From TrEMBL:
Source taxonomy: Eukaryota, Viridiplantae, Streptophyta, Embryophyta, Tracheophyta
SUPFAM superfamilies: Adenine nucleotide alpha hydrolases-like
Stretches assigned to coiled coil: none
Entries under InterPro entries matching the protein: Rossmann-like_a/b/a_fold, UspA
Domain of life: Eukaryota
Name of this chain's protein: UspA domain-containing protein
UniProt cross-references to Pfam families, sorted A to Z: Usp
Start and end residues of each UspA domain: 1-108
Organism: Lolium multiflorum (Italian ryegrass)
CDD domains per record: USP-like
PANTHER family for the chain: ADENINE NUCLEOTIDE ALPHA HYDROLASE-LIKE SUPERFAMILY PROTEIN, ADENINE NUCLEOTIDE ALPHA HYDROLASES-LIKE SUPERFAMILY PROTEIN
Amino acid sequence: MVVADGRAEAVGALEWALSQAVRSNDDVVLLAVVKPAPPDAGADSCVKIPSNRCYEHLDAMRSLCESTRPEVRMEVCVVEAEERAPAVVEAAKRHGASLLVLGQRRRPRWILDLWPAAKRQCCRMRRGISLVEHCIEHAPCEALGVRRRSSGGYLVSSKRHKDFWLLA
């Protein structure tokens, strides 16, 4: 199962999963978590724009998977939830996933040094737990946070290893 949220990190995680973890008889589930539409939203409301954009990203990631590994079976799953992290863990349980792959982003340190407000916000976020960290800790299967390095390879984080560099 790959969490597909439309960011470049999610595409990198999918590419890593297709090249390193997925075998020819495996099933790949692309999971997107969207916020539910408010009950008073009309049919012409602009609330639906992000979900349409979500489907465009899912379609692009599905076509990437089909062009890279045509022998792999694909499934697309869209879940509506307020909180993303518990929804991802619950979807992994429901689908019986054996591996959960998430794209991970790194915050540039020079921005934190130059902009004090970013440092305060980062410290506030550190008190809370990120989506990737929550899924690594609470997923019923092996969960990996994958970050592509600009110099080549990937940094992979799991329960046992943090930022393990893999040249792939």
